[in-house]
Amino acid sequence: xxxxxxxNAEKIIENSSYLVKNPESYKGKWSSLFxxxxxxxxxxxxxxxxFIIQMAKNNPNINxxxxxxxxxxxxxxxxxxxxxxxxxxxxICADARNIINYFGKEIDTIYLTFSEPWxxxxxxxxxxxxxxxLKLYDRIFKKDKHIILKTDNKILFASSxxxxxxxxxxxxxxxxxxHKDERKIENVMTDFEKQYFKEHRPVYYVDAFFKx
Length: 212
Ligand SMILES: C[S@@+](CC[C@H](N)C(=O)[O-])C[C@H]1O[C@@H](n2cnc3c(N)ncnc32)[C@H](O)[C@@H]1O
What we know:
- This protein is of the alpha/beta class.
- The chain has one domain (9-210): Vaccinia Virus protein VP39 (Rossmann fold), CATH 3.40.50.150.
- The protein contains eight helices and seven strands, in the order H-H-E-H-E-H-E-H-E-H-E-H-E-H-E.
- The protein is globular and about 40 Å long.
- The model has no long low-confidence stretch (mean pLDDT 96).
- S-adenosylmethionine binds next to strand 2 and helix 8.
């Protein structure tokens, strides 16, 4: 899928009430920003935001935060929310490597949706399920750990299963072809997923947890 460059991306982002400009100042205080004590779920690398926007619409009693590094993608997501009044959704334009600066122990679920696969061995530390990231997640999960990952990439999927199980995660569900799986789950498709679905390409899925 092509990434589009959005003119005035910075302006669009700056002017959005969904954007949290200084996420550091809400570390440990996101509940007060949402003005409730509902669960808080975080998507890393939300892209154009279809997934997190739809999740926020479907589940008004859960708070969602979409984090994305790229300004054009973030601006597109913000454009996609326009005209809607989603009180349970916030957007951060930042690098996932810095999440411990933005969150205390307050996240319930982390969604990793079609993350960059970094298939080369020398890049494995950049995968969002590398042990170094799992250690960061430990510092932001409220109590139990819960990660939901979807990908079309076999290397990322296999290494994620290995990394999660080596880190003592258990699996609620693992699927090698989510859309053909008979054990249906309530699935909201991401933008990348919609494309792969059209092309009949399998989507790998894992719902992993660790109870503290
Ligand atoms: C392949 S796209 C998937 C987008 C979306 N999740 C989907 O499924 O449609 C991966 C996204 O992750 C973002 N990304 C990559 N590295 C990131 C990082 N370190 N922090 C935040 N976002 C990142 C990219 O900019 C890109 O938008």
